[in-house]
Amino acid sequence: MYVSVVLFTADLRLHDHPPLRAALDGTREVVPLFVRDRGVADAGFAVPNRLAFLADCLRDLDSGLRRHGGRLVVRSGDLVEEVCQVVAEADADEVHMAADVSAYAHRREARLRRALEADGRRLHVHEAVTTALAPGAVTPASSDHFAVFTPYFRQWSRQRMRDPLGVPRTIRVPEGVGSEEVPSRAGLPGVSAGLAAGGEREGRRRFSAWLRQGIADYEDRHDDLAVDATSRLSPHLHFGTLSPVELVHRARGAGGPGADAFVRQLAWRDFHRQVLAARPAAATADYRTRHDRWRTERTAQEDIEAWREGRTGYPVVDAAMRQLRHEGWMHNRARLLAASFLAKTLYVDWRVGARHFLDLLVDGDVASNQLNWQWMAGTGTDTRPHRVLNPVTQARRHDPDGSYVRRWVPELARLEGLAAHEPWKLRGPERDAVDYPGPVVDLAEGLDRFRRARGRA
Ligand SMILES: Cc1cc2nc3c(=O)[nH]c(=O)nc-3n(C[C@H](O)[C@H](O)[C@H](O)COP(=O)(O)OP(=O)(O)OC[C@H]3O[C@@H](n4cnc5c(N)ncnc54)[C@H](O)[C@@H]3O)c2cc1C
């Protein structure tokens, strides 16, 4: 009897799951396996917010599998050793898993393939499971990847994507393969108070609600900080409780300018993945060096602390950083503002900011986080690498009545309208009544320092 192992990684769902479907087509019994990989923890990626969301996802995956006659096997340790152990216990012939893009994922996959093949077993790696289009599926004439989004998007949009797959009817798991208890978020320390719930059912519920109520207004309202009119599906995409292929199909089915704008954002996600797949070093090294001599933890410690804690004295930046801490999530416009402020106005190494984001973001993701940070720092794929976002102008435009600031910075809750964006303009008793720091840097001085550093003064 043929047995296979399906190794779940960043694809924690039953809908549209090519590895599971392929395994069930070719074999009678399947071991659905998740390994809590020690290597991920050793690299500092197993942070409380993502562990909590992951626990929700695993519990939901286990109950989904049980509804179809199966169960989830959970192990902890070195991923390659654990998979080989389960393969031996189940006497499995093959392993199916989704392709991934980071250098770590590539090394891990190569080690797993060698270990399995040495033992006469096979590894099948499936593309377009965690992306809508496989990295490398479209390339420009002269390179192995696209370095600019617009031409990438043009090609991406023309490709025919595979059809989404349904949920398998029956899953039979061989007897005798033991599992650890499926983890739970209960009692996990350090989790953000406002962290969203994970799991495939929750992801699908959110996505259906988004198609019904949110997507139509997305194009017009996605940059409005207070209205919060984006999908908030990023953690579900990060953990793969939703399939990007299915999202593209269903959004296109809904149609309209909002759906087009949403699909374009999903293409941004694929874009960064194809950059990282081709240039894995971009996770830590400048994609395009500008020969910056950044300020660092050693030379700008106080500024960095003020930024992390949301007390830079620039209300919209502080609101963004406090939302991050409270929810483990941040609006895209807020991420742009917070990143521009750290990397350009304070001229601090983008890696310091990227690390802080990865410590807290529930959707914290090597490709999307590092390459968006590089984009904003001007060392990545932005075609206008020296632009600096002015936090006051941006706040007036994207938080036009100050509600976002008042929601996240309670010290300013009594300031009306646009006054919340410039508390330093208050005078006398009004100023004395507001317990809020003055600006850590003068915007003109920050701009000047950055322009000089980039040789553009
Ligand atoms: C400095 C910085 C750091 C970021 N770090 C991350 C990260 O770690 N993980 C992450 O998923 N996104 C990251 N982003 C991208 C973006 O901010 C988030 O994906 C988005 O805010 C998530 O909210 P949403 O699901 O409501 O997005 P929506 O606006 O509803 O977009 C739908 C989906 O498209 C994808 N998407 C949207 N914008 C981008 C983008 N610029 N790059 C890549 N994918 C995108 C996301 O998967 C998102 O869920 C970062 C952006 C910046 C500027």
UniProtKB/TrEMBL annotation:
A biological process (GO) of this protein is: response to stress
Write the Enzyme Commission number(s) for this entry.
4.1.99.3
An example Pfam family from this entry, by short name, is DNA_photolyase
Residues involved in FAD binding:
218, 230-234, 262, 363-365
Keyword Flavoprotein part of the UniProt annotation: yes
Family matches, as InterPro entries? Crypto/Photolyase_FAD-like_sf (IPR036134), Crypto/Photolyase_N_sf (IPR036155), Cryptochr/Photolyase_FAD-bd (IPR005101), Cryptochrome/DNA_photolyase_1 (IPR002081), DNA_photolyase_1_CS_C (IPR018394), DNA_photolyase_N (IPR006050), Rossmann-like_a/b/a_fold (IPR014729)
Q: Where is the Photolyase/cryptochrome alpha/beta domain?
A: 2-131
Cofactor (UniProt): FAD
Task: Provide the top EC class.
Answer: lyase
Residues annotated as site: Electron transfer via tryptophanyl radical: 294, 350, 373
Tell me if Flavoprotein is a UniProt keyword of this record.
yes
Lineage top rank: taxon: Bacteria
Q: Which GO terms describe its molecular function?
A: deoxyribodipyrimidine photo-lyase activity; DNA binding; FAD binding
Comment on bound cofactor: Binds 1 FAD per subunit.
Q: Which UniProt keywords apply?
A: Chromophore, FAD, Flavoprotein, Lyase
Q: What family is reported?
A: Belongs to the DNA photolyase family.
Q: What is this protein called?
A: Deoxyribodipyrimidine photo-lyase
Organism (species): Streptomyces griseochromogenes
